[in-house]
Amino acid sequence: MIDLIGHDNQIENLFKNYKSDNLHSSIILYGPKGIGKRTLINNFILKILKDKTENKNYSHHINLFNNNTHPNIYLLEKELDKKNKKLKSNITIDQVRSLKQFMYESESINELNKLIIIDSADDLNINSSNSLLKTLEEPSKKTFLFLISHQISSLLPTIRSRCLKIKLDKLNYENFNKILKNNITNLKNEDSKFLYDLTLGSVGDTISIFQNNIIDIFDMTIKSFINNDLNNNLVLANSISKFDNDQFKIYLSILKSILNILNNLKNNSSDQNLYLSDKINVLKDISNALTTKNILDRFEFLSNNESDLFTYNLDKKLFIMKFLTYHN
After folding, report:
1. pLDDT value, residue 328
2. Distances, alpha carbon 258 to alpha carbons 144, 264, 282, 309, in Å
3. Helix 218-226 with 245-266: angle, nearest 10 deg
4. What is the largest CA-CA distance in the chain?
């Protein structure tokens, strides 16, 4: 289990309300992806287990939790498609029905609450969202639901209205760097600062960038912004087309971050002192070479077409080539 670094006030308030029997039955933890929302919930559940077991068989409960076999704890997330061995695009209505069975029918350890983690609620489709809504309207006694959301506006308003909402802000650089050093070896301080600026403090995205070797094509991506080199663009598009959907989503989030930084630098709406890394100067040179319209058009292209890309399983190579040559 990963130790929680940061978000001290939030976990303390959650546990205080839990101990005083004032904890809301359904809670949305929302904020930028990769800042520790799941880690916070996991550590909060560990505090509950320790409190309830009073160290009696505590290690046994931890093992059950870590192996996702604890009878009182239910994790709802996207499942693997048995046919193509890839993650499904959504949490399905059948999964929510299984969740209801866990809540109302399954056996559990009596002295413990039932604890449910939905990671992430953004992955619910309209059918599974409406099914979950009925559950929220009739909460089960001694059951707590924790919904993780990276983009709370994507959730049904009726779901949001029935949950306590807790916003988690991005980590400060000190905590960000501390977590990275625990997970990535031989990371230079300048690289850590640049990734903090690039991912808006998302540890999860930063670790994913390294684990998926996405950082290796960063320089090629930057080059594509300033040189309309067909060979470079083709090599880049070929490399990216091999990504699975999750890898591709990470890459698109990097593109959006680059465009945001370029736009801020272009319009002097972001003081250079707000950035920690000297590598931002490279992006500053690029921002001077591009027009504001070109930057905004590229961002609009990603925003308008990203959803269709995954919904209809469109060609990733063609998508990236259109982005690289987009001059609407």
Report:
1. 47
2. 38, 10, 11, 20
3. 50
4. 65
Neighbours of 167 (CB within 10 A): 11
Other CB atoms closer than 10 Å to residue 158's CB: what's the count? 12
Specify whether the CB–CB gap between 24 and 131 falls below 8 A: no
What's the pTM value of the predicted model, to 2 decimals? 0.82
Is residue 94 a contact partner of residue 123, using CB atoms and an 8 Å limit? no
Dig out the tokens for 49 from the structure.
């287990």
**Token duo for residue 8:** 């001290």
Structure token digits, residue 48: 């509950």
**DSSP 8-state symbol, 270:** S
Give dist(CA 244, CA 299) in Å, integer. Answer: 22
Report yes or no: 79 and 88 within 8 Å, Cβ to Cβ: yes
Give the integer Cα–Cα distance in Å for 308 and 207: 27
Does residue 175 contact residue 37 with C-beta atoms inside 8 Å?
A: no
**What's the pLDDT tens digit per position in 183-194?**
888 888 888 998
Identity at 234, one-letter amino acid code: L
